[in-house]
Automatic annotation (TrEMBL):
Keywords: Cell cycle, Cell division, Cytoplasm, Septation
Top-level taxon of the source organism: Bacteria
Organism: Carboxydothermus islandicus
Lineage of the species this protein comes from: Bacteria, Bacillati, Bacillota, Clostridia, Thermoanaerobacterales
Keyword Acetylation belongs to the record: no
Name this protein carries in UniProt: Cell division protein SepF
Length: 137
């Protein structure tokens, strides 16, 4: 403690030299950005959407099985006749209803069937007001 006591006494009596304080501005710290790691969350599984273009009524069971497994299904009926298309839609509407799912008409011959665990938002306004039997609404 050399000079500590004497400096305090002189400072108390007003005889000490005042030291000017220097202010040093600190530069802001640079942010270090690393690469974002993509990590799969446990318990989260990929949702797989299935697309079908049936040619016969025999294919409707595999479409229904996809719905039962929890996958949303898009069904394109553009290449089959109206009566067969109606039978397929009736069967899949029953399956979807039994599973507590949802049906959306994308266009007059393309339909989206979704099981209960899939939420579909929005609607196709062009087809909203056209006549279509939909027991889910």
């Amino acid at each position: 403690m050399s000079g500590g006591f004497l400096d305090k006494v002189l400072n108390f009596m007003g005889f000490s030299e005042e030291e000017e304080e220097e202010y040093v501005e600190k530069e802001p710290a640079k942010k270090v950005r690393g690469k974002a790691n993509l990590v799969a969350l446990p318990g989260m599984s990929m949702l797989k959407m299935m697309v079908f273009e049936p040619r016969s009524f025999d294919e409707v069971q595999s479409i229904a099985d996809s719905l039962k497994s929890g996958s949303p299904v898009v069904v394109n009926l553009e290449r089959i006749d109206g009566e067969l298309g109606r039978r397929i839609i009736d069967f899949l509407m029953g399956t979807t209803y039994a599973l507590g799912g949802h049906l959306h008409k994308i266009n007059p011959q393309i339909y989206l069937f979704a099981p209960q665990n899939v939420l579909i938002e929005g609607e196709m306004r062009e087809f909203r007001d056209k006549t279509f039997f939909n027991p889910f609404k």
